Amino acid sequence: MSQNDIVLRVDNVEAGYTPGVPILRGANIEVRSGEIVTVLGPNGAGKSTLIKAIAGLVPIFGGKVSLLDKDITGRPPHTLVREGLAYVPQVNNVFHRLTVEENLEMGAFTRKSGIARRLEETYALFPDLARLRKHPAGKLSGGQRQMVAFGRALMVEPRLLMLDEPSAGLSPKLVGMVFDNVKQVRDTGVTILMVEQNAKAGLLISDRGYVLAEGKEQLEDRADALLKNPEVGELYLGSKGGLL
Amino acid sequence: MTGIVSYLVFFSILASIYSLMSLGLNLQWGYTGLFNIGVVGFFAVGAYTFAILASPPAAGHIGGFNWPFLAALIAAMIATGIVALIVGIPTLRLREDYLAIATIGIGATIQLIANNMNWLTGGPNGIYNIPQPLSAYFSSNLGYNVFFLVMIVVILLLAYWSLERIVHSPWGRVLMAIREDETAASSVGKSGFSYRLQSFVIGSILMGLAGALYASFIKYISPTLFMPVLTFQVWAMLIVGGSGNNRGAILGSVLVWALWTMSGSVVQAILPSTLQVKGGAFQIILIGLVLMLVLLFRPRGIMGSRKAVVFAGESKTVSGE
Amino acid sequence: MKSRRITSSLVASAIMGVAALAPLAVQAKCTTTIGSVMALTGSLGALGQSIAKGAELAVDTVNKAGGVNGCDLKLSMLDDQTSPAVGVSAAKQLVDIHQVPAIVGALSSGVSMAILTSVTAPGKVVQISPSSTSPSFTELAKSGKTGGYWFRTTPSDALQGVAMAKLARENGLKRVAVLYLKNPYGEGLAGKFSEYFKKLGGKVTASVPYNPKQPSYRSEVSSALGGDPQAVFLIGYPGDGTTVAREWISSGGPQTFLLPDGLESQKFVDDVGAKYMKKVLGTAAGSVNTPSLKTFDSDFQKQFGNPPTQAYMTNAYDAVMVIALAMDKGHGTSADTVKNNIRGISGTAGTAIYAGAGQYEKALKLIKEGKRIHYVGASGELTFDKNGDVSGPMAIWTLKDKKVVQDRMMSVSTINKVLMKR
Amino acid sequence: MIAQYLANGIVLGSSIALGAVGLTLTYNILNFANFAHGSLLSWGAYFAWLVVLVFGGVQSTIGPLSFGWPFILAIVAAALMASVLALVLDWLVFRVLRKSNIQVTLVIASFGASLLLRNLIVVVFGPEPQYYSDNIQIAQPILPGVRTTPDELFVVGLAVVLVIGLHLFLTRTRLGKAMRAVSDNASLAQVSGINVHNVVRWTWVVGGSLAAVAGVMFGLTVQILPDMGFNLLLFLFSAAILGGIGSIYGAILGGLVIGIAADLSVLFISPAYKPAVAFILMIVVLLIKPSGILGEKVQ
């Protein structure tokens, strides 16, 4: 597979919680293999809905979602893991009462083999987790929980990892750590699509970005270009100067 | 013909008493999202307070205060309100479902007190000799019942009118905001707890009022009346009628009470004589079935407001198939 | 057009069908309906379903003997779910819609009282309960609030408590534990028993109430066992009572049982196991001397295929019989006919009439001849006082060959002697 | 004397604990208070009774126990049949109502279902209490001041075995862990590839089976009655909440605490107030620790 293969294609998708009240109104997104793509946008733009619709958690009324050229529109969420899709929700993204190790095992629920090997690989990636493997995830700090969440998602060796605002609610120091982790994950060969409020931090590690508004993508560009784009700057900082 | 009229009057009086309870519950659940399944407890407090204060002296328990009807009625409401405060202050801070189980326990505890504190409640023998207002002025039973019906309908309309006024006032809008999202409501400076407590107390007072009116109409109360099934009757009434809608609460009370009492005759007419003694069981089966069918085909009830009944808390219920 | 013809031919044949049935309809007798409100479900459901059969048997007996005033007697029975609210509504339906002049029921005192105060007394309809034993009814009747429409075919608790105290002392028991159901029946009986047992020189080692329908009665039984009793006076009904008795035996309590009428039930004895009941001293209102009980037993066996095994079945039977005879005596079916003639067919004057269709026919004949009759019921003498209460001797029952048998009586004068004791 | 009450409480508590575990499982995974849980318990007891009857009653007995091998088989059969009943109920009623996502509708529907199921028992089996065996075991002293029957010891032993089995199932097996995961966070479980509907079905099987066993235990040591499950329901809820709703170990602990407290309370107050002890205890615990003894903090 070459660097430019399309992992995810969202084609003119309409989706929402109530039929007749779409939140996404014909959104188009593409994610290519090995990329980190960030979706930006104001509150209520439909960023989370987009990611949940892809994951099968929000009903899709129209359009098409394909993963690795396979149509996954409207498939039940639990069947998507096997297709190579992993998803880390914004909140409540670990099983609080389960231990760290059990959280990771749940991530590998669909795997038939190689769980032990994958556990070791995950512990290698996040050495902190190895130390905490017997602790209930609910008792961990915010940053540690985020690691567990990443680790859980990576247990199936997904092709595409979707992150819903990974930096939300974290201290600035931890935000840096989380984005380092994201880069680290990408370096192991996983394609990443994330939704982010913290536009600057998100774009800094991204290859490309989309700006979503009113349920539709308004801008698409390389991350560095978006960082300098005055429109994006206005959206986030209220000035025309760009984010940098 | 007079028989049917007489029965309808009697039926309507009881249905109105149930309506008062379901209106109270509607304020608590339909408008505030308070999951109170101890309705019977508040009903009991109202009934006993009224009975103890209004009755002539009787052996075996305190009482014999001979209070006038209106004074005893108001005292019953105040007593219920106080009990609701005592119950509400600790439990309304808990999660919705905890409140539910706590209130069901309190309902059962009040019933046990009624059955066991003989000096206060007459124990298992209950309190008889409860007076009816102005009954001396009527010679016929039907005539008196018509008068009682008029009185109770006036009370019901008054309760309905006041509830409609308050739920559409700014106070009511805060309640609904709390029901939808407590954090949003408290961020604009409204103390959710205090509003919930107010709603809980007012709703409970209506249940106590219903209890007092029941005691006065039937003239006799005993602990067997205050079984948990009564709470579920009232809930069924609200859910069938449609919570979040005061007219729905009243309609549901009439329909469910009709089903509850008349299903006996229906079952009696249908069943062969050999199965007659099991008629009661069939009757309850019928009630259970109707209840479930209504919920399956009209989950929001007959007149339910679309928004009102959605569970207030965050739901993690499995969606879709 | 065609369909209309079919319709009209259908109508025509229907009319002919009705016409063909008409002579039958003329022959079929008129019907007199009386009501009954009983607990067929709820906490007294098990008891009620049996007691209801007693009433049904009486209706059958009356109809076999030609009915009431020549009309078929019909019993409209509604369930009160052992709930006063449902009970009053059922009674009101019977009174207003079925237009019944009399209601047999209810079973629990709580439901009977609610019906009495809100439906039958104000509606001037006769109410006869087969099993409500609370003393409150006597109080209410004394104050005139029942209007004379209230009767019961079972005596108030007071008599039985006294009789049991006497019986226990006669059998040399000095220390007795009381386990009683916390309802008007249990509380009344336990109170009276304790009062008179002490007066007779006995000691109540523990008096422990139990609530109906508890998941376990171990701790109640354990606390009743403290104080080393020689016997237990267990008050309740089959069901919970059975469980308490088994729990008592299982916990190693002495297997001497004092049992009231509520537990005079073969089913109770069978379920507990007669082999665990070394000694049973039972009391119940009624008289073993009358042939009524034997007739009732054999008629019941014929009708339902099993012997009657439950207290209050006979009381329900008698309630219906008393209503039917009062209607015959008064040549009417109104509530006042029943109310005014009940004392005319009971009491001690006149020819004794016992249970059963043959006896009922005899009664009809005597009434026609203008002679006085007095009905001696399956549950006993049935002499109603001015409050609607019956008083009478107590029957003493026990177990013989694992069967419940009444073997002797305790006369009114014996009981009164104890009552006089200071 | 105290030791005897304590022993009584442990017997009562172990059956309550099993019932409460089933309740807490369904409560947590399906997110509603299932009032029909008590009916599963009653039906379980009656199913076992039916099987015992098919085998011609309990004749041969194992050691000092009041029953023989057919009874053990009856327990297993009852658990299976109660599971099927739970699945049918879920398929006909709760599955449909879950879609509308209104919690209280589910609660009221479950109450309707409990009315229906309870009275079906009355129609089918009659309202009178039944017993597995006509024989009554006389309690024997096992410790100074403590008398129990062999059946009671069996009940406590079976409860311990089942609790250990359940613990192993939930911590060692794939399905058990998935069940805990769904109970913890259903939507996260979904996106982890767990088929939540499948887990829900297994939850009914586990909850229904435990309810049936609890029913058989009550039937063995107390009585079999159509209302038995409903009368126990408030004890079960108190136990589940006392221990912290959703926490399986909390439910077990809660069941024991409720059972022991209810029986010990007789030393201090009239047994008439015994049923209230469970609630008062529950409310006191909730006031001190709103999440229950073993419950985690509510987010």
Question: How would you describe this structure to a colleague?
Answer:
The complex is a heterotetramer of chains A (244), B (321), C (422) and D (299). Chain A has 244 residues and is an alpha/beta fold. Helix content of chain A is 34%, strand content 25%. Chain A has a domain at 1-83 and 191-244: Rossmann fold, CATH 3.40.50. Chain A has nine helices and ten strands. In chain A, helix 2 (100-107) runs parallel beside helix 5 and helix 5 packs parallel to helix 6 (172-187). Chain C has two domains: 31-154 and 289-381, Rossmann fold (3-Layer(aba) Sandwich), CATH 3.40.50.2300; 158-277 and 392-419, 3-Layer(aba) Sandwich (Rossmann fold). Chain D is mostly helical. Chain D has eleven helices and two strands. Chain D is globular, with a radius of gyration of 19 Å. Chains in contact: A-D, B-C, B-D, C-D. At the B-D interface, helix 4, helix 10 and helix 12 of B face helix 3, helix 4, helix 7, helix 8 and helix 9 of D.
Summarize this entry quickly:
Chain A has 244 residues and is α/β, with parallel strands linked by helices. Chain A has helices at 47-55, 100-107, 115-125, 127-131, 142-154, 172-187, 199-205, 223-228, 230-237, and strands spanning 6-15, 24-32, 36-40, 60-67, 70-71, 85-88, 160-164, 191-195, 208-213, 216-222.
